[in-house]
Amino acid sequence: MSEYTPSQNIPDRQPPATSVGIIGWVCKNLLCPWYNAVLTIVSCWAIWSAVAPFWEWAVTNASISLDPEVAKQHTGAAWGFIRDMWPVFMTGVYPAEERWRPLIALCIVVVLVSLSLVASYRRSRWLKILWFVSPIVVFALVYGGGITGLPVVGTHYWGGLMLTIMLSIVAMLAAFPISVLLALGRTSDMPIAKPFCVAYIELIRGVPLITLLFMASVVLPLFLPAGMELDKVLRALVGITMFFSAYLAENIRGGLQGISKGQYEAADALGMSYWKKTIVVILPQALRIVIPPMVNNFIGILKDTSLVGIVGLVDLLQIAFATTSNPKWFGRLEEAYVFIAFWYWILCYALSSYSQYLERKMPSASK
Amino acid sequence: MAIFRASFICLLIVAMASVAQASTLENVKKDGFLKAGTHIENPGFSALDSNGKRVGFDVDFIRAVAAAVNVPEIKYTPLTSKERLPALQSGEIDLLSRTTTHTMSRDVKLGLDFTVTTLYDGQGMMVRKELGVTDAKDLDGATVCLQTGSTTELNISDYFRKHGMSFTPVVFDKQPDVRKAYDTGRCDVHTTDVSGLAAQRSLMEKPEEHIILSEVISKEPLGPVVRHGDNQWSDIVRWTIWLTMAAEEKGVNQANVEEMYAKSKDPEVQRMLGKTGSLWTDLGLDKGAPVRIIKTVGNYGEIFDRNLGPKTPLRMERGLNKQWNEGGLVYAPPFR
Asked: Percent helix, strand and coil across chain B, each rounded to 5?
């Protein structure tokens, strides 16, 4: 064992060729040691055997002709079916000559969202007013009638992707404030509000969404006086909102309990009233903590709106079934499934990306 | 539980009674639209075409009734099979045209009124040719692919039990899954209503390798349903359907109905189309109703051919649904 002296500096050597560059990366990540090599090969084989037939069906043997006879000669997908029917997927049975109205409504929402993504606009009061007015404008545009002078298109004409998006956005917006109140009620010690909130949350959480939807759409009309009719979309919306407000409330309660007691006590010590304390100190921190589970819930809402098919609303999933019995494109179920899966994925991925962006931007209180 | 059920039925009856007070015809005319229930989708019976419009055999009879009462708009409510009967009872819809089988229990227990059978359907079976089976009675021990939650399952087990045979059911939730399973060889027999069987066969990998057995194992008389208690409304639906049937018998169709109205010398055609007599005004409609109906949907034969016939993907033969004078069961009472 030699003693270390500064003059005995050992010159740096290059790492061995097997651990640098492409070879090094491949070896480190894919092949070494031997069991990783086996895993690599097995996974490659698994991916290939799943992707290759799909690729063959969706691309190699597919046809995009609008003529069903041409499509029949191809063994693969008939994308002409989607080309022919995509407006129906978007708006359902909404009258073809009025389809420009949901399109404009969509443009309004997209423009508003894009403006809100620009940081310098976000604080402007105009944007907030626009956001506040936009639901009314969108509804007036899509429903028509009244001062708009457009022909009325009743909710029974709403369908497809349009209905899915509307149901989920309205359910998210309506469920959120309700759930905050429920969570506050449940964490409070008020003698009537607390048991009520607990009962509501536990009752609704103990029942499947399908049951609520059935209650709202099948049983409820039997008890209403004759001639009184609640809109079907509204009934479904009430069911979904009730259901998700209970779930969101539990998420938010988690956030409320996740804040250290010192925050509550400090706010009390400053002499803040309950509402001031809640709005200024507690909720901003609590909501920040619960962004990930809340977005998780929002994604759940979006996908669970597909259950409204059970009460006869024609959402994106039901429209996929409905289009496949079109006599012209009879039995093209796979294409329809792939198409709507693509749309659900886009929507859910957009939501989850936005939540990740929010998380990065707003570090939670503990950090 | 019994108390719950009793109170539920009481409420149901109260609800129905209050609905029945106002005449359905008046309500429909006042609203300006017909509230009708149909399938979300069922090939040939109710589907969406490329413009998002509803088309199909069941839909055409709804359109015929809307033409009869002369309302411009139809409010379709797509219904599941569980939902369809409560929707009619609660007054959410006034006409249900959704391949509903006429059975005694539905007729007498549920406060419904079955109008005219528009399609005599029945459950059939399809097998592979190579199996060498020509008679359903040779199917002892077979595996049968079928859709769950309908009378299909009950009918097939009734049939096998009656003939002392055994079978293994393989059940699926959706028709395309049944088809795929049968096509990939998971079962020997594919069973569903005859109206759907030919269409299912046309979607097989090799349609020519399958045969549909001639045996029909159940009776499925399908037709529009209305609420019990409003006889005028029920009559309007009945005579609208019978008009399409009589029109076929008399050679009146969508193209020539106005010409027939003007020129036909047949007194029954004249009465039927409202040129003479007061049949249609007695019913509470106007004199133009019959011509409007035929101009909108055509006669029974045209409705059948357009939606179910050999030129459609369903490739259904008329069979029992021929006119009575050609050996079928389609028989309209006289317009007199």
From this structure: 45, 20, 35
pLDDT per position as a tens digit, A244-264: 999 999 999 999 998 899 999
Nearest of B335, B336, B249 to residue B300 by alpha carbon: B249
Q: Where are the domains of chain A?
A: 46-77, 95-152, 160-361
Are residues B333 and B116 in contact, defined by beta-carbon separation less than 8 angstroms?
Answer: no
Lowest mean pLDDT: which of A312-326, B116-130, B268-282?
A312-326
- Tokens standing for residue B98: 């959704």
Share of chain B above pLDDT 90, in %: 57
Task: Name the residue in chain B with its Cα closest to that of A321.
Answer: B41
pLDDT digits (tens, 9 = 90+) for B33-51: 999 999 877 888 988 888 8
Cα distances from A68 to residues A65, A323, B57, B180, in angstroms, run: 7, 14, 22, 21
* A226 neighbourhood in chain B, CB within 8 Å: 15, 18-19, 21-22, 91
pLDDT at B80 over 80: no
Mean pLDDT of A108-113: 88
pLDDT tens-digit readout, B213-237: 988 999 999 999 999 999 999 999 9
Q: What is the CA radius of gyration of chain B?
A: 21
Is A221's CB within 8 Å of B86's CB? yes
Fill in the amino acid letter for B96.
L
Which residue from A45, A41, A20, A43 is spatially nearest to A28, judged by alpha carbons? A20
- Complex-level ipTM: 0.74
CB pair distance less than 8 Å for A322 and B42: no
Select from A309, A312, A326 the Cβ nearest to the Cβ of B48: A326
Chain A residues within 8 A of B55 when measuring between CB atoms: 327
Q: What is the pLDDT of residue A366?
A: 47
Q: What is the pLDDT of residue B317?
A: 87
Q: How much is the pLDDT for B256?
A: 96
Rounded distance, CA B73 to CA B53, Å?
13
CB contact under 8 A, A322 and B203: no
The H or E element spanning position B257 is: helix B257-263
Q: Does A100 touch chain B (CB under 8 A)?
A: no
- Distance (Å, rounded) from C-alpha B270 to C-alpha B90? 39
Of B19, B47, B80, the CB nearest to A310: B80
* Chain A environment of B19 (Cβ under 8 Å): 226
B77 to A232: CB separation less than 8 angstroms, yes or no: yes
Question: In the CATH hierarchy, which top-level class contains the domain A160-361?
Answer: mainly alpha
What is the percentage of chain B residues whose pLDDT exceeds 70? Answer: 93
pLDDT of A313-346, one tens digit each?
Answer: 889 998 888 888 887 888 788 899 999 999 999 9
The secondary structure of chain A in percent helix, strand, coil, rounded to multiples of 5, reads 75, 0, 20
Please give the pLDDT value at position B235: 96
**A145 in contact with chain B, both atoms CB, cutoff 8 A:** no
Pick from B11, B21, B77: which is nearest to A156 by CB? B77
Domains of chain B: 22-120+221-254+283-326 (3.40.190.10), 123-218 (3.40.190.10)
∠ CA B102-B104-B109, rounded to 5°: 110
Each as own residue / partner, the long-range contacts of residues B134-137 (CB below 8 Å, 24 or more positions apart, any chain) are B134/B213, B135/B213, B135/B215, B136/B213, B136/B215, B136/B217, B137/B163, B137/B165
Query: Between chains, do B90 and A222 touch, taking CB under 8 Å as contact?
Result: yes
Chain A positions touching B313 (Cβ under 8 A) are 327, 330-331
**Residue A185, token pair as written in the block:** 């009620």
Q: What is the pTM of this model?
A: 0.81
